[in-house]
Amino acid sequence: MSTHLPQTLLTPEGKSHDTLKQTRTRLTSTNIVGLVLANTVEFFDFFIYAMFAGYIGRAFFPQGTLFDGLQFSLATFAAGYLSRPLGALTLGRYADRRGRKKTALLTGSLITLGSLAIAVVPSFDAVGLPSSLIVLLCRMIQGFAIGGELGAVTALLVERGPAGRPAMGAGYQMAAQGAAQLLAGILGLALVEYLPAADLHAWGWRLPFAFAAALLPVQFYLRRSIEEVIPSPEPDPRSATSDTRSWIKPSLCSVGMIFGGTVPTFVVIYIAAFGLSGASPSPSFSFAMASAIGAATLLASLIGAALADKIGTGTMIVIARTATAIAVYPVFALLSGRDSQIISVIAISTVAALSALAGGPTLAFILRKFPARHRATGLAFSYATGVAIFGGTTPLIASAIVHTTGSGEKTAWYVIFASVVALIAQRYLRRAPDYEMQ
């Protein structure tokens, strides 16, 4: 595999100035924990929206129309993802030029602003259409912010994370998403169990969003404590057109790789909320399953990253995507004919874990295909575009499959298709040159 190393200035001893700076500023364990905790808080906002989509639909959107409140709520969920690519290009470029830390502080504030607004906006019955529009705007602001968030923070974790363990650095990012889903599920379960149903429908569902907004000072403090050295722009003798191609071409293949991880993630989230057989499970069971999926994702992300640093990121991705494609249909077929909640939790968590094994390795694999001056932008755009096109629309597609066929078993074919596309995209992306990460 060919390797392209960006030009750097050397000391008289033959060492790169950038290498010396990065060695002195490598993230400490406290920095890594802080970044992961802050990411957990931010992704918590998105997961809690998906889990409370039914409540949000009844609160903010009209009922008794061609589309019910749930469909409007899911469409708004998708809109939040469609705004991600714009955030990726805008904030990713800002991160590459002005620093990963500054971008992380900005995105955290924007995401929390959206959560705070959802927690306090009056219902549709109280103010009518403005309620729906405000919620839509909040979701798009959050999507814009998260679009730039992942590229900046993941680049920071990989570039300055554990030496010689790039997959683990990216694995921390994916583990944070699992922790966020686990936290959202636990909090949702607590609300269902301890709040009367009438109170939960009236105002209780707003509490998780208020909780997320209240944590802004915590994540702000955790990220401000990170020291960052912003290197001078690297000299680049190539033309502007060639420079642009250095990240545009890999981005297109990267979108395909993101497709393979996004679809399984959001299919299992949908199943946790709305069931596989078409009959929605109880709220308690939905939140319990979401917690189990979050825990499986958290653990599998770390395990997959650790294995990838030993056997190679490409190899780990192939193993995980192939295993997901092989297992998903038999698992869904098994669940369609069974009512055991324990078996359901174990089986769905297994699918989530198999897919999550490739999470960190996929991000690390993609990051190596971008030079440092485009790294945050390249990953952010690839991830945001893949998630916007395929992730944000997956709940709508899954819902359509369930309503058309009467069962969610056929959603397995969508997962299989996504896994195959990801493997093909990886094969093409492998041909692109690798860039030095440290």
Automatic annotation (TrEMBL):
Gene Ontology terms: cellular component: plasma membrane
Entry superkingdom: Bacteria
Keyword Cell membrane belongs to the record: yes
Keywords: Cell membrane, Membrane, Symport, Transmembrane, Transmembrane helix, Transport
PROSITE patterns with a match to the protein in the record: MFS (PS50850)
Entry's localization field: Cell membrane
Transmembrane segments: 32-52, 72-91, 103-121, 133-158, 179-197, 203-222, 252-273, 285-308, 315-336, 342-367, 379-405, 411-429
Keyword presence, Protein biosynthesis: no
Molecular function via GO: symporter activity
InterPro entries: H+-coupled_symporters (IPR051084), MFS (IPR011701), MFS_dom (IPR020846), MFS_trans_sf (IPR036259)
Main subcellular location of this protein, as a coarse class: membrane
Pfam families linked to this entry: MFS_1
Name of the protein described by the UniProt record: MFS family permease
